Structures are given as C-alpha cells and as structure tokens.
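ASSEMBLY PREDICTION REQUEST
Request ID: AP-0331
Submitted by: J.K., bench scientist
Number of chains: two
Total residues: 791
Priority: normal
Notes: Please return the full assembly, not individual chains.
Input sequences:
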Amino acid sequence: MDLQTMQIIWFILVAVLFTGFFILEGFDFGVGILLPFMGKDDLERRTVINTIGPFWDGNEVWLITAGGAIFAAFPHWYATLFSGFYLALLLMLVALIFRGLAFEYRSKRDNPAWRSFWDWSIFFGSAVPALLWGVAMANFIRGVPIDASMNYTGGFFNLLNPYALACGVASLLIFTLHGAVFLTLKTSGELQERAMGIAKKLWAPATLLSLVFAVYTFVETDLFTRLGVNPGAIPIFSVLALLSVIVLLKKNATGWAFFMTAIAIAFSAITIFMGLFPRVLISSTNPAWSLTIYNSSSSAYTLGIMTTVALIFVPIVLIYQGWSYWVFRQRVTKDSKLEY
Amino acid sequence: MDTLFLARLQFALTSVFHFFFVPLTLGLSIFTAIMETAWLRTGKEKYRQLAKFWGHLFLINFAIGVVTGIVMEFQFGMNWSQYSRFVGDIFGVPLAIEALLAFFLESTFIGIWIFGWDRLPKRLHAASIWLVALGSNLSALWILVANSFMQSPVGFRMAADGSRAEMTSFSELLFNPYVWLQFPHVVSAGVATGGFMVIAVSAWHLMKKTRDKEAFRTSLKFGAIYAFMGALLVSLAGHTQMQEMVHKQPMKVAAAEALWHSENPASFSLFTVGNEKELKDEFSIRVPGMLSFLAYNKFSGEVKGISELQEEAVAKYGPGDYIPSVITAYWSFRFMVGAGTLMLLAAAVALFKVIREEYTFGKLTGALLLWSFLLPYIANSAGWILTEMGRQPWIVVGLLKTEQAVTPASVVSGAELLTSVVVFTLIYSALTLVNVLLLKKYATAGLHGAE
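STATUS: Completed
Returned structure:
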C-alpha cells in the first residue's frame, strides 16, 4: 500500500476508535451522570453503578487506544492537540482519575460520607468528560489558532467559545439520554420506570440542542460547504435516529431505542470526521497551516506495521469485548450480587 | 517559571507514583491466578478464599495503576510535544500496541473476573484472571520496548531533513537487547513486590492467631517461594543488565559508581562523598578490582570513567555537559542494590521457616517478615530514578536532549505547568493515602472481609 492510502486508512481507524469510544463510554458516562437522579438510596445507587460495572473499564480503553493510535499514526496531531488543549485535558484527566477509582472504592467502606464523596466523583467524573468531548469535537471542526510550526497559539478560553459550548451541552445531554435508555435495558421494576421517565423527559432538550448545534455548525464552520447543502445520508440518518427515539420509547421498544441513540451518536461523530477530512486540526489563523493527515503522519513503514497489528488484533478485541457484553446481558436488580 | 524544570518534575512525580503501584499489580495478578488455579486443581476451599482475598487487594491497587497510567500516556503530548513530534514515528507504536494488546485484555477480563464468580464455569473464570495477569505484564513489555528505545535507540534512521527519527525495523525495535534485559528485571521485581506483600500479610495473620491458620500458612508458603524467586531473578537480571550497560551506557555506570576516571582494574565504591564540580572524591572507601569483576567476571578490565566519557561525548556530539547528576545516580544505585540484597536475605529467611514448617516467629524474624515488604518499593523507585536520571542530559541517547524535547513555553506556559504539577501532587498524595488505608483495612480483615 502506498503512503497516501495508509494515511486515509489511519484517519478512518482513528475516527472508528473515537466513534466506538463515544458509543460505549457514552452510555456509561450517561449512567454516571444519572446516578444522583436515579438512586434514591444507597442500594439503588449501587444497583445503578453495577449496571456498568463489568464494562466501563474496557470502554475507557477505546479512548486510550485512540490516543495511542494518534500518537503512532499522526505524531504532529497528537503533539499539537495534547499540548494545545492543555488545561482542558488536565481537567479531563482529573475527572477520569476520580471516576475510575470511585467505581472500585465506593463500596469498600460503609461510611456515608465516604460513599457520597465517591458518588459525586462518579457524577462529576462522568459529566465533565461528556461535556469536554463535545467542546473538543466542535473546536476540531471550527478550527483553533495554530501557527506555521504546528503550535497552538490560543489559550484555554479560546476553546470555550459559544459554538463549542453548545456542542458540549448537546453531547452532555445526548450521552445522558443514551445512558438513560441503557438503564431501561439493564434495570427492572421501579428503577426501570424511573429511567424510562428520565429518558422521555431528556429526549426533547437533547434533540433540540442537537438541532441547534447542527444549524450553528452551518453558520460557524465550513462543514456544510464541504459536504454540500444536502450533506448526504449519514448526517440525515443521525437526525432521523434521534427523532425516532421518542417513538420507540413510547412503544416500549427500549432495545431499538438504545440502538438509535447509538446510531445518532455514531453518525454525528462520523459527520464531524467527514467534515474534517483530510484535515485533523484546522488552523483558524491561516487555513494553510492546518494539520492534515498528509503533513502530520508517520512514515509509510510505521503505518504499515500499525496496519498489520490493527488488522490482526482489532477483530480479536471486538470478539472478546462483545462476549463480555453477552456474559453480563442480564438485568441488574437489587437482589443481584453487587460487586461494586 | 522554567517549563523544562517543571515538566521534568511532573514526569518524575507521575512516573514514580505510577510505578509505586504497578509492580504490586504485576506480582499480585499472577499470584491470584496461581491461587485460583490451585483451587481448580485441588478443589480445596482455602485456595478459593485466598484467590478472593488476594484478588481483592489486587483490585484496590490495580485501580490506581490504571488511572495514573492514563496520565502517563497523555503526558508525552502535553508536556513533551517536541519529543512526540521527533520520535512519534517510533515511540508511538509500542504505546498504541500496548493499548490494543494489553489494556483491552486486562480491562475487559478484569470486569469478567470481578463479576463472573457465579456466572462463568470455573475454568473460564480462572482463565480470565490469567488473561488479566498476561495483559498487565504485556503492558510492561510494550512500555519497556518504548523506554528501551530512549536508552539504546535501534532500528531507526534520521529523516533526510533531520526533523525526526523514523523506524526502519520493527523487529529490531522489539528485539532490542535492552528490552530483554529490562523486561525480566521489571517482571521479577513485580513478583518480588507481590511476594513480600503476601509474606507480610500472611505472617501478620499468623502472629495474630487468626482462625484461618491453615489458609495463611499455605499463603505464606507460596509467598515465600514466590518472593524468593522474584528476589533471586531480579538480582540476576539486574546484574546482567549492568554488565550490558558497561558497553551500552558507560556514562550511567560511571555515574552510578562515582568513577571519575577510567580505571583498570576498576574499584567498587562502598561509600563515596564526591565533588561533582571537580570530578573527584572527597572521601571514598573502595574495594580494589571489584567493579571490573562485576563488569567482566574477572579482576581486570577497564571501566571507563566520567571525565574520559565526557571528553568522548564532546568529540562525538560537540561541546556540552554530558554528565548526569552523579549524586542521584550513585545513591539511587546503592538504594536499589542495597534493598535488593536485603530482599534476598529476607526471602531466604521466610523460605527457611516455611520449609521447616515453623510458623511461630521470634521478635527479629517476625519484624523481618512484617516489614520487608517495604524493600521492593525502595528498590523499584530507586531503579527507575537511576534509569531515567542516569540517561540525562539525553531523552533519547545520542539523538535528542531533554531540553530540546519539552513543549514550547508559548504553548504550555510555566503557570499552566505549575498548575498541573500542583494538581497531580495533591491528588496523588491523597490517593496514595487512601490506597494504603484501604489495603490495610482489607489485608487485616482477613479471608472473610473479601467474601
């Protein structure tokens, strides 16, 4: 394969890893955000946490792998992005540290203050990244100040523009909706009813904000100029999927509703990556200084090695991770053996 | 504030913290797997209880290793962007493979193991903890492949414009002799760390007249063998590594020995107060010929000194200071080797006791069994400080200096870096405390706490 083909393959693979991350960690972020609203007492909160107990850690690895893949395949993208979005990433790391430990530690002591501290760690540890990933994606497509030597020249507050914040709130709401629908699938009785109620209530604001974000994108970015006024099937399906969720929820078709929130998330992410291609970070200072898959990638040899490794191991990972979802397909109830 | 200094400080803090927890994860994952396998083979209840007990402690510790590990992966891009641009073509590959091969494996199967006790057939459940252990140790392998490139770069060429190093051979990168010296050293350090933890906790319960005497005797027996194996292998691997480093990284060896000038035969320093400015001893007790013996297995042979190596480096790379901090290298080496030697001794005592089936301990033996678990922590931290500090001023030996690798101050300011240093220091200190308290709580609660 020639260099250019492999650069395109790795752009697609990175997009796939991020999309997988948003779908999978999306619902466990959502469950974390809903924890204070779903669980009225300690046992209920434990039950809610245990619905994602076996999965959250494996889901998070999608992000770690996406980070590693960017480093290996597009070192300049990795270097510019991670150094440029410094404080935002620091905030996210802190969130992920507390969240990860909270799952393991919260039920290790009976002290209510201890449990409450870790429960709030789960809430903030889920809400902050859910918001920040929306902010990050919006800034990718909108462009950020980058100079001729690929260095970010803005500050933390450049990232918090109204457009990016709108996307952040939208992603926060969508992930929360996704989590609520997941909970309707994994709980029973009163908890399930509560999750259903929340999902139905959340649908309208989540959908509204996503549409606002879509229109805002038309104004603020070149995405629609690039994809055309009729942007193609993928963004349209994303919107349709989101619209169908409420109908499916009302019919109690929760499995399909979950499928549709996953599709809405996936297709939104794919739309943004399509709008980016072949750029990976757009320079708002001078479009010519943007990072693209062509000026930030590793050598043909390295991409070749990485492609071989990915072709062998990505399917294996998908098989055993899929199997783990199958093993723990049952609903979690208050009578289940709660490990977390 | 000087960003280079802060970035180095943060790297030192976060990596030493991270590796403070990781070896116990490496060692206890295998130990838990051995216990569960013993249950599978014998059907004896005590092995199931021990698998749960040690698995529980393993999980408490594992969580911190995971979250501090994410920081490590992100940190290269955040604080060392110039480094990332320069070596991404090579260094990024083992990191990505680590995530794909090791992190997915351990993270998925840890979930299956925790939640699968009642849901999976026994064999499959035992297999899942072995896969966790495999994942954890594979992750060590890939990160050492990455680190070995920094110590002893192979399988690369410089890009035509000199802007970056490019990989020319993945197999050379993977089969870098340095990897296969470091990997056994790190894995056996993990085994020793786990083994001494098992010895300490088991001995504590036996001294407290636990009602689970039988189980903790078994645990102590396995722990003593495990710790002895670990201590022996880590010393042998370390010795082999040192002999290789005499050729590959002579400056690190000279600094670790405070050997100011080349000597033949070279003496081994027992205690030196040196003068780093004038490159000479203020005070030193030395064993003649001993360093040559350690390096070449015979009492002659030249070991190069700091002054000569500095001159060679200037001739090769141009003017500059190529000497690492001698006091840091010298003392970290002595702490590592000293702790390692005591580990061998303590493990031998434990082994002697369990072979003779003596489970009552006198004051001195008791204290040794209880407190020797601290030794691996000293050796592990000192070992990494020597490895990384002894490599200075290089970040990749011969290719890139640490000062050239840091993110430009125009991108990440001193204030931002200071913020992250403070944030990580505070959080990590608190978490260490929490981790230690939880480990203590569940270690002393005994077998029934984990049920």
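REVIEWER COMMENTS: Chain B has a mean pLDDT of 92.
SIGN-OFF: pending second reviewer
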